[in-house]
Structure formats: C-alpha cells, structure tokens
Amino acid sequence: MSSSKKSSDGKSSEIEEAVASLTMPFNKILLTSSDGESFEIDEAVARKFQIIAHMIEDDCAGKAIPIDNVTGDILSKIIEYAKKHVVEPDEDEDEEAKKKLDSWDAKFVEKLDLETIFKIILAANYLNFEGLLGFASQTVADYIKDKTPEEVREIFNIENDFTPEEEEAIRKENAWTFNG
Amino acid sequence: MKQNPLKRKRNDEINEETLVLMTMHKEDDEHEHTKPSPPSWEILCLVGPYMDPESLAVASCVSATWSKCFSSEDLWKLLPATRHSIFYKAITKEETTKPAWLSYKRLISEAESAAKRRRNNQPAEPKISLSDLVFIVHVSAGSKEAVVVKQGKDLMFGSYERFQIEADVSDSGFTADMKDVSMSWNVVLRNYERMFLISESVKKSLDSKIGWFTDELPATKNRYCDGSNLVGEVKPSFNEEVLDKVVFAIADSRNWKSLFVDDVLRYLQCFLIE
C-alpha cells in the first residue's frame, strides 16, 4: 500500500483524481483520507466497504475516491483489517484458517486504545463495512461485560450524572444483575 | 485496557469537548488524553446490539445518557430470545396485539433474573394462590413447537389433591419416534412480574414413551422442605404414536409422590415473591 501526505485543498485532490484515472493500474482504487493521505488498494478490498461497492456497481466510482469523514491513521487501520478479511474462511470448511484469523483479529484490536476503536466504529459505519463494525462493536461490548457500573464509568471516563433518587431507582430496576 | 504511553498532555480546558460528538477531523493526531473521551451517543447506539441483557442492564446504571440508550425497547427487542420468545408467544396467544403493559426490557430482565435465581437458589417470602399464576408449557422438537398456556384460575384442585398441569399437544404433531424433544414448563406470576422455570432444556427421546424426572429443583429455606428433595415430573401420554398430552407435576424424590397443590404453592411462592 502506497501512502503519501498531501495538503488537503480541493484543487490538488481534483488533479489527483484526474491523474489517478489515467495512471492507475486496472483493478486498483485510490482512497484519500480527510487529511490527504492516499491509499492504493485492490478493488476486491475496496468492495468490502459497501458504500464503495455500490459506487462501483452504479458506475460512479472514479479511480480515486475521497473519504471525507475518516482520517488517514484510522483509514489505514481499516484497510489493514479489510485486506486480512477479503476472503472470510468458512468455519465448517476451514477451521484452521478461521482460528488463525480470529487470532490475528485479537492481536489487531489488543494494540488499540478505546478512542481509536470508537473512531474505527464510526468510520466502519460510515463506510458500511459490516465485518469490522461488528467486530469493533463487539470489542467495546466485551469491555462492559461482567463489570459493575462503577468499573464501566472508570474505563470509559463517564460522569455519574444521576441524582441520588434517580440512581436508586435505576439500581432497583436492574438489581438482578448485582446479586452474584 | 491499554493506554498509549503519554506523549503530550492535553490542556484541561478541553473538558467540554469530551462531551461533544467524536469528530473525525482532528488536526493534531499526536495528542494523548490522560483518560479516554467518553463514547458519543452514536457509538452507544452502534454497540448496543452486541450486548447481552445483563450488560445492557449494568450499562443502564452508568449515567443518565447511557440509561436512555440502553433501556430502549428497540434494543431489547433485538435480543436473541429463546427463553424469552416462549413468554412472548404465550402472551400473544391470549391477545393478538402486543399489550401495552408488556415491556421487552422487563420481560427479558425478569427471565434472566429468574434463571439467575434458579442458579443461586435464592428464596423469598410467600402467599400466592393458583389464580395468581399462569403455567406455560413448551414442547419442541426440531422445527415443531407447542406452547400451551394454563391459567391458574381455571385449574381446580381440592387442597389435598395432587397438583398437575395437563397440556394438550395433540395437534402439534409430535410422534413417539422423535429424539431430542425438549419439554419445559414455567410458572409466571400475574402479569409476568415474576417467573419460575421448572425445567430447562432437558432433551429426551420419546420412543420409550415413559415419563421422567428433572434434576433436583432449587432448595428453599422453607420449613417445608429442607434442602431440595423436589424434582419436576414429566409424563407424556400417547394416542397410538402421536403425543397427545404431557402432564407436569412436582414430585418429592424421597417417596416419588407428586406434591399436593398447597405444597406446590408453598414451594413456588418462595421464588415468586420477594
């Protein structure tokens, strides 16, 4: 994947698009992040993002596609994940491959802090990349699992803004979770 | 949870921003918070569908915003609900439209809570009658399913008659050759305020045509039974090869006799009333 930083003003991206249309190898697509980072990827990888797949189907995808809502650092992570998941192994047919991929996924997300994961969720949602959206969302859900509300507040840095009465009422409503 | 090593500390004045929706356009991508920004509403909504009932309930206690998001009926409706769908089907058997008092959140929370109580053997105090109860029988095998609802108020027993629930499943097409038939019966109090599960996913084959007993039912601190010597009793009866009825009862494993109605009520009330 080639990546280059350019200034993100409209004129240079127009030129970039034009150049890409003329010089891009067949089956490659150029994605440009909101902060001007460019990524050349295979069409098969780009198709993991449903919004791009639809653009390709409807024939309105140029060779260079601006991704205005996503910064380069996040887009790079998303592309990394997409490349690994271009072909999803069938759990029944190839258990070995599935296990390997799950292990890669676990390491991938282990290195990321919460804020990055949030950004990835929003970006995956924007790009309509269901696989990553599900995986990242499940990761966050797992942070909440088996924790007390206090622990969750600590992890996510949430302020307890209930009044004492509200808090008591809510705890009562959900008391079943607290008893062992 | 891992935090990247601090490179640069952000100014404390940024605090207001932590409450604003996460923006994708960050000019300074090198900054580090000492603590993460709280997730935006959009994030909460995207993560919600991936949480189990207990996580949703805990999350509802975190803050007012989280409470709003994770108490949403639309979210709870999405939960894969094998146990809960039984109750939903039972309710909608009586009325074709979803009744106003039915909240998915309450239904599922109570079902989960009942399962937890069953695991923890938590007892309680009593005073209920048959008319307070509804019995729900569920029989399934593969894609065939029968849900039978018996209103306690329609059942007649003398106080010294042995208690039993007779579920007519003759038109559900279960036959004696079926394996992996799961039968359960559940007791609910009034408007599904509380539930008690008598048998959970016990799968048997029907070919021997004889009944069976469940595992020991949870013990209570009730004077009547110390430790649990109670088991659920399941008796299928056949019309030729077709399953006609299933009779459910509670039996004392010391003498293998079914309990009388009053004793069943005394036992059940331990689990249905706080």
List the defining traits of the structure above.
heterodimer; A: 180 residues; 3-stranded mixed β-sheet; 9 helices; B: 274 residues; alpha+beta; 3 domains; 5-stranded antiparallel β-sheet; 7 helices; 10 strands; 26% helix; F-box protein (chain B); ubl conjugation pathway (chain B); F-box-like_dom_sf (chain B); nucleus (chain B)
Characterise the protein shown here.
- The complex is a heterodimer of chains A (180) and B (274).
- With 180 residues, chain A is mainly α.
- Chain A contains 9 helices and 3 strands; from the N terminus they run αββααβαααααα.
- Chain A has helices at 10-23, 43-46, 50-57, 72-84, 95-110, 114-127, 130-144, 149-156, 164-173, and strands spanning 28-32, 38-42, 64-66.
- In chain A, strands 2-1-3 form a 3-stranded mixed beta sheet.
- The radius of gyration of chain A is 21 Å and the shape is elongated.
- Residues 1-8 of chain A have low confidence and may be disordered.
- By secondary structure, chain B is an alpha+beta fold.
- Chain B folds into 3 domains: 1-31; 41-121, Monooxygenase, CATH 1.20.1280; 130-272, no CATH class.
- In chain B, strands 1, 2, 4, 5 and 6 form a 5-stranded antiparallel beta sheet that branches. In chain B, strands 3, 7, 8, 9 and 10 form a 5-stranded antiparallel beta sheet that branches.
- In chain B, helix 2 (53-60) packs antiparallel against helix 3 (64-70).
- Chains A and B meet through helix 6, helix 7, helix 8 and helix 9 of A and helix 1, helix 2, helix 3 and helix 6 of B.
